[in-house]
Structures are given as structure tokens and as C-alpha cells.
Amino acid sequence: MLRTLLPGLNPLCERIILQIAAQDAETTEYCKNILQSITLAFRPLQLKELAATTGLPRDQFSDIQAVVDLISRCDSFLTIRKGIVSFIHLSAKNLFTLGNSRQVSNSPLEEEQRQITYYLLDAIDSTLQRDIYSLQKPSIQIQKATGRVWSYYL
């Protein structure tokens, strides 16, 4: 049944993609990256996760509202509910995975997955820090460390 619906939905999808492409080049690229990430994700993504998987520049998109504004440029395909970004309908995701809507990417699937992995590793590298509890010695006894750990959260 899905395959019979896809031919009718493809022209609509292509028209929406042309509207996205009519924006400035930078915004178009960001929107395509967002659509790729949401398509390849196993589950709907939180706004911060989406910012990381698309490799959006941190200086421009450190504010979540900037990410929301960018997603609104793709709102014919995407929706945001309680900070979670997902396709407006499963048929929209199916168009990107099964349909002729490969205009959002010129790369093979493996390359897209590799790029998202790179973005995620970069986000991890820039976020994680060593010795977050300032223990200074990896061999410190747990009893001594517990006080510092709890004071970190208080």
C-alpha cells in the first residue's frame, strides 16, 4: 500500500524540497543535514542531539531557539513536540528512505552515516572533560571521593 502512495507523494515532496533549496545556500545545507539526520536516526532526536548529529556550528546554534528556527524551515516534514524532533508522519520518513527524494543528499548512505558519526565524536570530544570531580588521583578511595562527588551536584 505504501508503494502505491509514494508516487503521489513524491511530487509534493519534491516541491517542498525545492522550497527548501530556494533559501540561501547555507540555510539549505543546514536543512538538508537536519533531514538526513532525522532520516538516519533510529529514534526521534532531542533538539540538542539534532544539533550534534548535523554538525551545526556551535557559535551560531548554541541557543536551542536558533535550532528550532532552523527546523521551522523544514516544518512541512518535521515537527517538534516537548523538545523532540520527528517526522510529521511516518510516510514522510518513508519518502526519504524508500522514495525518490534523495535530493537531500548526493552521498551514498555509508558516507552519510560516517559524517554523522564524525559529528557525534566531535561533540563528545568538545563536551567531555577529564577529572570532572577534581579528584586529581585515579587511585583515590571511594569514601574520600564520595564527598567531592556529592558536592559537585549540590
Task: Please provide a written account of the structure.
With 154 residues, the chain is mainly alpha-helical. It has a single domain, classed as Arc Repressor Mutant, subunit A (Orthogonal Bundle), CATH 1.10.10. The protein has helices at 2-21, 25-40, 47-54, 58-61, 64-72, 90-98, 109-127, 142-153, and strands at residues 45-46, 78-81, 84-87. It has a three-stranded antiparallel sheet with strand order 1-3-2. Helix 2 crosses helix 3. The longest helix is centred in the N-terminal third of the chain and has 20 residues, at 2-21. The N and C termini lie far apart (55 Å). The model has no long low-confidence stretch (mean pLDDT 78).
Could you list some keywords that capture this structure?
Arc Repressor Mutant, subunit A; 8 helices; 154 residues; elongated; mainly alpha; three-stranded antiparallel beta sheet
Q: What is the CATH architecture assignment?
A: Orthogonal Bundle
Helical content band:
55-70%
Task: Output the CATH topology.
Answer: Arc Repressor Mutant, subunit A
Alpha plus pi helix count: 8
Low-confidence stretches: none
End-to-end separation in angstroms reads 55 Å
Rg, Å, rounded: 20 Å
- What is the mean pLDDT? 78
The SSE order reads HHEHHHEEHHH
| Beta-strand content | 5-15%
Overall number of domains = 1
What is the CATH domain class?
Answer: Mainly Alpha
Strand order of the largest sheet: 1-3-2
How many strands in all?
Answer: 3
Sheet having the most strands: 3 strands, antiparallel
Give the class from helix and strand content and strand pairing: mainly alpha
Q: Could you say which overall geometry the principal axes of the C-alpha atoms support?
A: elongated
